[in-house]
Predict the structure.
Amino acid sequence: MEVGPDYAVQMHGIVKVFGSFRALDGVDLDVKKQSIHAILGENGAGKSTLMNVLYGLYQADGGDVFLNGERVSITSPTEAIKHGIGMVHQHFMLVENFTVTENIVLGEEVCSGAGVLDMAKARQEVVKIVEEYGLEVDPDALIEDITVGMQQRVEILKALYRGADTLILDEPTAVLTPQEIEQLIKIMRDLVSKGKTIIIITHKLKEIMSSADECTIIRRGRYMGTVDVSKTNETELASKMVGRHVNLSVDKGPANPGETVLSIRDLHVKDDRGIEVVKGLNLDVRAGEIVGIAGIDGNGQKEFVDAIDNLVHAEAGTIEIKGKQIQNTTPKTTIDTRVATVPSDRHRWGLVLPFTVAENAVLERHNEEQFGHGIMLDLAKVEEFTRGLIEEYDIRPEGCETHTASGLSGGNQQKVIIAREVSSEPDLLVAVQPTRGLDVGAIEFVHKALIRERDRGAAILLVSLELDEVMDVSDTIAVIHDGQIVGSFAQGTVTEEQVGLLMAGGGNE
Amino acid sequence: MLNSLLLLIGITLMYSTPLVFGSLSGVISERSGVVNIGIEGMMVVGAFTASAVSYFTGNPWLGFLMAGIAGAAIALLHAGASVTFHADQTVSGVAINLLAPGIALFFCRRLFDNAAMTPVCTTLPKLFGEGALNGTPYASLNVDVTVALGFAAALIMWFVLYKTKWGLRIRAVGEHPAAADTLGINVERTRFICVLISGMLAGFGGASVTLAIVSQFTQTAISGQGFIALAAVIFGKWKPHGAYGACLLFGLAQALTVVLGGGSIAIPSQLMAMLPYVLTIIVLVLFVGRSAAPKADGVPYLKGSR
Amino acid sequence: MKTIVKLLRKPIAASILAIVVGFIIAAIVLAAAGYAPGPSFAAMFNGMIGRPKYISNVIIKATPIILTGTAVAFAFKTGLFNIGAEGQYILGTICAVIVGVTFNLPPLLQIPLVILAGTLGGALGGAAVGWLKARFGINEVITSIMFNWISLYLCNFVVNTQTFHQPESTSTFPVNPSSYTMILPQWKLSEEGLNALSGTPWLYEVLVKTDVNIGILIAVAAAILIAVLLKRTKIGYEMRAVGLNREAAQFAGINVNRNIVTCMLISGALCGLAGALSVTGLEPHNISTLAAFENNGFNGLSVAFIAGSSPIGCIFAGLLFSGLIYGGQSVQQVMGAPSDIINIMIGTIVFLMALSQIVPMIADRLERKSKGAENA
């Protein structure tokens, strides 16, 4: 591709090496001015690495970067900002206990005299951009008090405040509702019409189809080509991304629901700030069915699952497992009642990373007699047990039972957790965001494991922020909004739009 | 009555001042995300340097200044270890507490004939001049000039942290270093400088013992002030004004043991001496929540790794 | 090259490197201050192992810091920083003295009773800190430091109570002789004993001139027991899980708060045990008014760090530490160099241990270099 001023960003032959791992191996990117350009690839394909090179967070080991046809060398975020590049990271880079204004001006503060802040003037400038681009947000609010959608707008404002002409958005829709996604797409179109160029990093095909003009595909650090979005379809993009034909739907037979395993009645739970976020939730999950909870992050999902796991106190209501009340007991009681949970954050809740895989494989079960008599723990027996799981669940690398869990890839770490939770043959399996951050192959694995457990006769409660996942995998789709289940539908009897509306608090109230 | 009240205020201010410098030292370091458990050691070095320089030059102000520089020099080790090399900050701090008194005593014995203390040195003046208020009931309010310096330091730090761009950046680095980094703020440099300032303030804290409260360096001149200052940081919720208030409270508790200890009240002096420490625990139980610490406090910042 | 890389990867490599560099830096400081490093170190080692009496004293002085070191290392492995070892040690001495003075039973009952009292005293101090952390979320570092001072003044208070104060001294009465844990305390000073020992001079020197006691055996046993507890039992597994990832442990049904209290209790118990053994095993078998800390607990921190938080490592680190402190006195006597050089050396070693994660990084770099050389 020729270098020219029609292109806002051009990256040619970019190479980035971490240790012995080639994260980027000759990747090209040509982004036309005033367009929305998507970068598509699986988790770990190198999308974020490529953008971190552009933003100056990483230094490339080879290749050239051109902005508006001029060759540049960007060695720090400061330089990227100077060159008019702004980045909205997937995990927001916001200081939680700062105000919106403080976050926006940080690093480029408005000062009166020598370093003394002029926050009144800073606020005015923020209000000015807010109005110019129609990005509504309260400049005086603390970040910890505003919604995720708002936080994202603050991130965009941060870039605009610094005069960004090119905006990089890293997985911007991961945390948004369908309605918020629509709003975001509108905002992006608005920005483009006002002269900005936008690069979005994503692995979601639907959003590329509905928002992007062009799409560059990366697979395992290699450049797979750039396509005109209007001349392609989802299936083609998917197979380019994964390198083989992908079945986008989930294969499963009909559900065979049995007795009610989980029964929640009028549950009330407060969050860690003492605000009630689960407000009279009712839910039933039967053996042999998958109930998926659709909802926007922060509507009480975390807290009601924590209440099942007895990690938080339930203010009122009951949680029954096969008729036995377990609310407000201990996490151990939940486990002993044959409830297994795949937690949302595997590093935080699921694994003790410095432990070996074997030690992790028996968390929750280490007290069983088979792992040592009385108070003793027999590591040899633990490792033998783990070897069985490694084989059964194809956890790689082979013989990893003595490796620390931190050395495994994300997909294999998740396999360890699922193997552990499923191996106890639970009556109820709660899976919270079980595919977060996994590549397509691992996602397929997780979904198959859930369906296999269902067919074994377990009750499955799936909580996910990915609406597609809930729609595809669940036998029953329950929508959570503001701490209550506001609708429950058999799979196939409801559209994504209807569910989205309920998630946002609209619809039949 | 008025007399003993004024006396109490005077002694409170006297005892709280080294703690004020020490806790400000903790505030600046921890606000930038570096736990500094080595304040005690840095204070020891400051205390020694101050009194040695004052003894040799006869100029206590020079001693005070050099104490700050010596504290910063020791802090250089902590900064290098915990900021540049991402070492365990607690272990590094503990090492400072071992190393610093060793260095101070080594030089002390080398310079003063194997004695573990310096000779009596010239101290800093009183706030209103020597003997200015003598004969009036307010004589006990003619406190050491270090009291005013400590107050000024707290005021300046409050202003810097909350009213200047540097303060905004320091707080951002301590809360969310990655966010600061993406905005072009140099996290390592910010932390490095804050730890050096922390060392300087701790050095001043040591000097305000040996150049005001006592007039020479001994092995027990600094005995625990650095640790109480750490408690004041937490009690004061990592804020300079909060820490200042906490130090006043600790100073008051100590003053009470002095004022009441001499009186007719039948509390054994050893039990009175526990008061500041018991008070700290009670206060922590009653008032301190879990979440007041800077989020990235004590967490090394690693960039560029995947 | 490969063997070097392999050696550097061993956990003990960091400790050994730190100790070597500590010696080098001490040598540089000595030389800079005008003392010949060689003879200074020779004096130190002579003062450490030059005579049977010296070796015996090094071992005796290692006893409490092996225990407090193990206590700190154990707490560290379970995610807790027990800077309160000093106070828990003091509590141990206080309780041992109170019980040892009050009761006078036959040694077979008296000794376990006194030691148990000290252990319980330390355990209570530790558990209090753990409880404050578990119940109110208060950082154990701060409460530990406060408890250190409270313990110090409590010691001074007990010394000055009428029941225990020994007139015209700054100490309490010694514990009753039935509590003594020295080896053959009476026999070795009796005529018969002195006669028997005069044939073997080294034994005479060790037994008669030093307070040889059973403490070291208990200390070594405790360190081994703690190592087994951590590595080979289900409770130890839970404790390590809590230490490495509190949230994941809670998720796995482990009672995190109870674990915190238990771990601090055990850590405190070890410190209290150290205190009790000092009272029963060493002259003057009492406690005195403390003007400042005696550092039996704080030195435990250094021991634990030098040992890389390995309980077994604490045995060796404790002996080394004790040897340096004890032998360091000779540097001053023989060379006139300030014995504080030893503190500088120990401080340097601990400081380098804080940087210990650099060692595997060096190994990585060496490995890459040698691979690069092979490929080229």
Notes: Chain C has a mean pLDDT of 91.
